[in-house]
Amino acid sequence: MKKREIFAGILRYLKPHGHLLALTVFSALVVVAGQLLSPYFAGKAIDCILGEAEVDWSALRGNLIAIALSAVAAALFQWVMSFTNNRIAFRVLAQIRGEAFSKLSVLPLRYVDNRAYGDIANVIVTDAEQFSEGLLLGFTQLFTGVLTIAGVLGIMLAIRWEIALVVFCITPLSFFVARFIAARSYHTFKAQTKARAEESAFVDEMIGNLKVVKAFSREDENAAIFAKKNEALREASLKAVFFPSITNPTTRFVNSLVYAAVALTGGLLTISTAGMGAAFTVGNLTTFLSYANQYTKPFNEISEVFSEFQNSLACAGRLFALINEQEEPSDAELPSLGEAKGEVVAEKVSFSYDPARPLIEHFNLQVKPGMRVAIVGPTGCGKTTLINLLMRFYDVDGGAIFVDGRDIREITRDSLRKNFGMVLQETWLKTGTVRENLVMGAPDCTEEEMIEAAKTAKAHSFILRLPEGYDTVISDEGVLSAGQKQLLCIARVMLCRPPMLILDEATSNIDTHTEKLVQEAFAALMRGRTSFIVAHRLSTIQSADLILVMNAGNIVEQGTHAELLARGGYYSQLYHAQFAR
User: Fold this and answer.
1) Nearest alpha-carbon partner for 234 in 261, 196, 277, 272
2) 458 inside domain
3) Which of 142, 175, 279, 541 suits a disulfide with 374, CB 3.0-4.6 Å?
4) How is the beta sheet containing 344-351 ordered, strand by strand?
5) Residue 333 lies in a domain
6) CB within 8 A of 20, min separation 6: which ones?
7) Measured at the alpha carbon of residue 332, what is the angle toward residues 329 and 333, in degrees to the nearest 5?
8) What is the dihedral of CA 11, 16, 20, 26, to 10 degrees?
9) Would you place residue 581 in the very low, low, confident or very high pLDDT band (cuts 50, 70, 90)?
10) Co-location of 69 and 203 in the same domain
């Protein structure tokens, strides 16, 4: 994203907090006024000491009180400004994280499938955090810094324009340093953010598949890959911190020039105007030297803010890129499917994940309500893709799919998916109790219905052996075996009792004895329901009403188990290859 677009996005998030921004600006004005008034009254206090035993005590007392009041006001409103800045930054952080996370639920699955999960998580968690930190730093230091510079110049001009002119002539050097650093920091921080995301994604992938890594003895190879990514991050990080690292010494050099110029010019004025009516007093010189320090300090802070802000902009760019991704077209205005009867028709369906590599072409299918349809074929033939199209996880590129005579693109996705119950080979359980996982699709079910579904899925017995039974907290990465997790997923679908079922290798992680029992439960559940069964073990689909044999995205054969065996074609070859002795 371009910087202009990123700034526009930041302003959009800041707009609802205009009242807090106004309070921040007012607080900054008071803080700067208090900090600028203290040196002024300090100089006036010094001039109250006229000589040995000659002190204007009344004026000195008034100046000291003014110094104390200025310091108290500056400290109080510094706290107010910090408090409001924190509220703005963390409210924006919560809002932008919420929008980024919510965006994931409305993005096409193609977006998630084409990116590493760790990279997406890094954007929502790490990039959002760094964006917020840059925003907070900018609010805290940018306002006060700019106001301090303007205020000091104004007071210097009012008291002695000659010194103000000297300071003003040196000022462009500070702006040049800040601009030079900021211009080069953005691209280095952007490269650092990208390298960090790639490393995070790789670590997430390795942790999630550690068993596979160990099984194939890939530890050394993965260590080498990680070392390469780590080196890339190291180089990017070094480049990213180089320019910020020169901020302090360069700005300190400019600060010293300003201080020396003020001291020299002020000293000469003090000597040359001694005894005159408009003399430049020692108190005035003390005030100007204090202002010289106050004038140069914001340049240090603003330079640091610019460097940090470049990192913040790079992170904001990745966040806004996610939030601005084109989401699935809204279907809120479309009618609902209602409860489906279960008739499914595919007419000349074409689809591919990559336009250069066609997968399904001119696919036709007709399924009557209540039919059990098995889908078999070699890996990559399009079985799971067909399921993705039925559920509208992906939309067809050509042709159409109809449920009960209605094009599924002309009904809401939610109403379509509520009519399907899915049990996949890849199980998923949320972190929560067993009860919460089971009733996810049927939150209004009774305790008896939940237990009956668990019994039917053969999960009740092992649930009771858990420490807290149905109230045991589990997670997808917990101590349950793959088979136990799959039984819970089966029970979850059985509790919903949807009119149509999709079973994608639903019993792949279950032992043979339990599988037989679950298959019996599935047979009862599928009775009268349209069911799609994806299977590699052909022994599990022999009772299907229709078997679709797919290869290279097309149906090459279809019929019952007995018909396909008698035909002696592709299915027969697959079947005999599995059961050859």
Assistant:
1) 196
2) yes
3) 541
4) 360-367, 344-351, 398-403, 406-407
5) no
6) 84, 87, 88
7) 105
8) 60
9) very low
10) yes
Tokens of 395: 């939309």
How many domains are contained in the chain? 2
Write the pLDDT tens digit of every residue in 525-534.
777 888 888 8
299 and 425 both lie in a single domain: no
Please give the backbone phi and psi of residue 417, each rounded to the nearest 5 degrees, phi first.
-70, -25
Q: Is residue 337 part of a domain?
A: no
> Which 8-state DSSP code applies to residue 378?
S
CA distances 451 to 454, 463, 513, 523, Å, are 5, 10, 21, 19
Pair 312, 357 in one domain = no
What's the domain range around 441?
344-579
Q: Taking residues 508-527, what's their average pLDDT?
A: 71
Encode pLDDT of 472-492 as tens digits. 988 766 678 877 888 888 888
- Choosing from 294, 323, 352, the residue where a domain stops is 323
Is the pLDDT score of 443 beyond 50?
Answer: yes
- Least Cα distance to 159 among 56, 279, 38, 63 occurs for 279
Q: What are phi and psi of 375, to 5 degrees?
A: -120, 120
Q: Partners of 398 in the beta sheet?
A: 350
Q: Say if 338 falls within a structural domain.
A: no
CATH number of the structural domain spanning residue 135: 1.20.1560.10
Query: Do 306 and 366 share a domain, yes or no?
Result: no
Supply the CATH number for residue 390's domain: 3.40.50.300
289 and 363 share one domain: no
**pLDDT single digits (tens) 390-410:** 888 888 899 999 999 999 999
Residue labelled with tokens 């400019």: 254
Q: Are residues 391 and 264 in the same domain?
A: no
d(CA 574, CA 565): 10
Residues, the chain, total? 581
Residue (of 447, 140, 453, 133) closest to 309 by Cα position: 133
Can you tell me whether residue 203 is helix, strand or coil?
Answer: helix
Give the number of other Cβ atoms within 10 Å of residue 7's Cβ.
12
Q: Once rounded to an integer, what is the mean pLDDT over residues 428-432? A: 84
Beta bridge partners of 549: 376, 557
Contacts of 120 (CB under 8 A, 6+ apart): 104, 112, 322
Residues 317 and 352 in one domain: no
Question: What is the secondary structure of 176-187 as a DSSP string?
Answer: HHHHHHHHHHHH
Report the alpha-carbon distance of residue 212 to residue 225 in Å, rounded. 16
Same domain, 388 and 526: yes
pTM of the model: 0.63
Cα separation, 112 vs 104, in Å, equals 8
